[in-house]
Queue: 4 jobs
Job 1
Amino acid sequence: WGMSIDLEQVSVEDHCGGQLFTLRWEGERMVRAWMPPGHDLSAGPLPCLWMQDGQNVFRDEVAFGGISWGAAGSVMHLIQAGCIPSMAVIAVDHAGVNRSFDYLPVPPGDWGGMRQDMAAARGGNIEVYCELLLRGLLPWAEKRFNLSPEPKKRALGGSSFGGIATLYMAMLHPEAFRCVMIESPSFWACDGRTMQDVRGHAGKPWPERVYLAMGGSEYTATRPTAGAAGAKCDTFLTQACEECAALLAAQGVGPERLDWHVEPGAAHNERDWRRRLPRALRWLFGAPSAAEKSAGGAFWSRPSPVRAGCAFELYADPSKLPQPRGGQPQVHLGFNGWSRDVQTLLLQPAGLPCQEAAGDKAWLVAMVVAPSGARDLQLAFTNGTDWDNNGGKNYELSIAQG
């Protein structure tokens, strides 16, 4: 399977603080490579996240539906906050009308008439596609961009049919990537073949870490007139995600290796995958040390201390916040005595266990940037109705300069 390929560079542009290279692979099918700031070929080899459906990964104007994953922005913020190492992202375009052929083990079928648009779609090339990535694109890109060839510094991610392709790569070549991100996998496709193959993988290895997620309204959020039949589709997909997680756990991918969740109300689109991407990246590439946590406190920052002009993450203990009453936990914050950059941000699940909290709750997190010249941060927590402002004193963090 040794393959010799060479990609033609089409363009390079500044993007989210780094550089975005577009390279022609086959016809109009591109490979899009984002390199972080300061990286050059003389630097040490970088870890890399590889992504399926590359058209949708970086830029809204070329993404399906006009919304991309915004991957470079999320990666850049987490790098600046010290949450993940400096790393590259390489996104491989799908093959257009042959997308399902590359990504699926057999034709998808029409899901009992619920996906008639897929009735004539092809499938069956997934093994060849995985080999093409491993024997062709990976070694070429690792040489071209000075990426690490070590599997422990590689991750692979995808959504929808791309999530199925990522799942198959994890089964066919578990040694090739340390970790995989499987977003909204199309378990409806292939007439149950995918879950059958996961069951049949018992006794065989998996990558070291797996991130698996599904929206609670995958079908109806994009097809609001689907009615009761659409609601059954939503239930099928969430139950399939739960079954896949249970199978992984039974095959040795326990909670220290698997982060999985179903997000209530979330749809099958890049907007929701974009929102969940930071959680996936934290799980796959980084985790906080105990020293970073504010022992017994309601919140802590990463990095600590926060520095003016730099990105950071604000973590909150859900057991110490006002409990939601129909609303999502939020943080209201401002800098320099509330005189600068006052804003209210949703607190999202971080995917990191919160041992101090009751039960199995995880830390909540908001991604923030401290403006230049900031000296201090004031904040309060709310669920949209109730507030926790430290007994009227507000919570505060000092901000370091330089």
Note: The first strand starts at residue 8 and ends at 15.
Job 2
Amino acid sequence: KRKYPEGQMLQSPSGRKPPRAPNRSTFACPVCDERNLTPQGLLEHCEQAHTSGSGRGSFSAVCPICMAMPWGDPTYVTR
């Protein structure tokens, strides 16, 4: 087994860093760009800030939670 100094980034044999994985822990609101929302926090935020009862009308947006999933479609717009 190879031992690496603490904090050292592991690299592939070719020396290249692995591609960055998308953040699937926190999300930005697709309507107002509020950031660092958990999946539950994003749902609650959208219900409170962007539903027809909030006086802002309806909207269409790409769900950032769905888009972050490996099978997500970044062109699918929910209404």
Note: The first helix runs from residue 39 to 49.
Job 3
Amino acid sequence: LMPLLGEEEAGRVEIPPADLEVTTMRAGGAGGQNVNKVETAVRVRHLPSGLVVRCQQERSQARNREIAISMVKARMLEAME
């Protein structure tokens, strides 16, 4: 379980967009027709470190992308400490 970062902590970790590989996929589990036809799950890979985070919590791909990037930043901050 990884806590989401606040504005102050998120500002401490800067990740260039070129260092991230973002892929989308269909989410699994309950959710009906939306889950079966829309790619809302997001996987973010930090290329320099090899860190991979997958998020399928929300119904929106954009929101899942934000959460996944926040999770990558949180893990990188944790690794730096």
Note: The mean pLDDT is 85.
Job 4
Amino acid sequence: MKITASIILSLQLASVSSASCSSSNFLTSRSKAFCNHPLKFRGGQQDDAIDDTPSGSYHGNYIAPQGEQPKAAAIVEVKNPPSTAVAPSTTAAAPLASATSKSSKLSNLQERTGPAVLMLGATFLLLKYTGEKGLIGLILLMQLGLYSESTGVVEAFQAKKGSSIDKIKSYPVMKWWWFMTAMIFSGRDLIMQHTSLTGDQMNLMNFCMSAASLVGAVIQLAMLSGPGTEDLYREYLGKLACCHFSLLFLVGQSSFWIKTVQEYGLGWVLFPAFLVIVNDTMAYVFGVLMGKHKLIPKLSPKKTVEGFVGAGLSTVAIASPLVKRCIGGDIPNLGRHAIILAVYASLVSPFGGFLASAVKRAHGAKDFGALIPGHGGVVDRFDCQVVTAPFVYLYLKNFYNVES
């Protein structure tokens, strides 16, 4: 009788699942116990051993003797049945994805080319008719854009998180006060050329402006009260740090362009700028055509080792003919100076772009702005240029002057 019942039970369970009753993924603990102890469960409850008499009837998962009212059968559950779906193969899709990615990059390159040509043409016309004064004016406007965009990205990110910085009414005033203080300090030579102020007077003016910003900021923070004041302190100090970093990294370094054009002429500003443009363009081209290995995937996923190396070689190769075009004249070791600047523009300047990418990624921004179609904002276009400006001036000051 037990053997016959076991066969019947096995057939019943096979209709629910193709797995054996020992598979723990398909049967509940009750069905496992039933498998280990056959014919001792009635209605899902353990009972006394069943008689071996041939009389009785089968009711799902137990045997009821004759004359006994059948009880409700226990429910056998099947948990998480194995999926029979076959995962699609990615082998065939890989070439298609690669071709689509390359097509997208080429389309992006075409989109970027038009605005870049227009921007270079406008700059050429400006410099042709205004010369050094026009370049200095352009640099001052760029510094305004650099500061506004870099601080704006952080402010927009905090606004999405529910920023309460609006409670500090003086913040916008302090933000632009710091900008004016930095501009006066970095442009002190330019101011003294067009005014009667001396260097000592300029130093005193800068110190007084810095002291006023310090006192004003502390007084404003002291006037805050109520719940969440500590969070507001942290938010304000974080934006203060952002503003001062923008002033140091962007405005401060770009001020060396003004010093370079005043002391060495327009050519020594344009030549390094063209080097960075060539390096950035060739890095994109080599990355599209040959890029397979990511350079810094966590910060700038689109940059590749092949693009970085190819851009460096291209920049060094074009340095000597380009410097003769921009500087001209019979200058000793001009080619050597050009190659040194090209090496710097290839190895160090791109890291300004990597840092800018980290800032955008940290604050969920695709670009710093939308001023230039296909390129983003001012920071997106000049993040590598500002890293080059101080090195060019200091290199010329220490080596070019001596040989000249």
Note: Residues 93-160 form the longest helix (68 residues).
